[in-house]
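Quick illustration, no need to memorize.
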Amino acid sequence: MGDSSENSKRVKLSDGRFLAYRESGVPKEEAKYKIILVHGFGSSKDMNFSASKELIQELGVYLLFYDRSGYGESDSNSKRSLKSEVNDIVELADQLEIGPKFYLIGLSMGSYPTWGCLKHIPHTLSGVAFVAPVVNYWWPSLPKNLIKENYMGGLIRWGLRISKLAPGLLHWLVIFTQKVLASTSSVLESKQVYFSSHDMEVLKRTTGFPMFTKEKLRERDVFDTLRDDFMACFGQWDFEPADLRITQESNVHIWHGKEDKVVPFQLQRCVLQKQPLINYHEIPQGGHLIVHYDGTCDAILRALLLENNIYVQSVYRDPALLTEKEWSCTVPSQTFTWPKACQKMWPSNVTFI
């Protein structure tokens, strides 16, 4: 059902745009689990999701990567919105005959289309995993004091205002800033203000953020794609995660690093306070690029797909718990340390060793 070009497979959407995609894992017809991965800001369908081939074969996993509108080889969408991102996923799944239900994994800023799917098409989702998801600073349930303390919140709001009122000026400011910076590669990759020490090690062995190079950002169409994606993600939504009806059967997971400098873990815990049935996996020394850490992708798949194989599940209702005497919890592939008082709050299907 997909149309193919010389460089990639594509599907034609109802509005005439093309979405490019690639497939991985076991053949779709033989798969027990079908997963659509939603890439983040400045990324593409060629992102690296390094789950082991042995696990993918063992579980029978089919993976579908696609270029969101304007990224990679997909056509841009001048009317991009949260709802249009959801519609793209629906049409992609329909045309490729994925089936009545599938799984989603949303990475970083790919989380906003994923939240949109939980809002608008929950009946089609077998489970959802968010990996280092961003938060929208307009969500009413977020504590104002935490937003004020987080410099990223102010930077994002400033960027939204400039993007709406003077996009040409914003493009000029980006180019001007690049000229001032000494870096010759990505404008992000060398900045420890955005990444933890573990993230910096990851960037040494991955392709990083190819759309954020000085050369790419000078291209107006690339800049416009990034700006429109930014505005759809951080603009005002018609809902927030706190409004959603999430149950244990929803099978929703959030994976986050405690040293994430892009999205502070405290904001993620605020989401959990409103949605206590989300399975929360916090990596103590993890930064924003945890999806690239060894073993993380395997752990994500096991937790998402295998019943009663929860990697780490936690609900932080009281920040004071963090000062309690800690205890060790052994989980598949990793050992983490968690507050002992949290044990009473965890569901019975979580096993402590």
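DSSP finds eleven helices and eleven strands in the chain.
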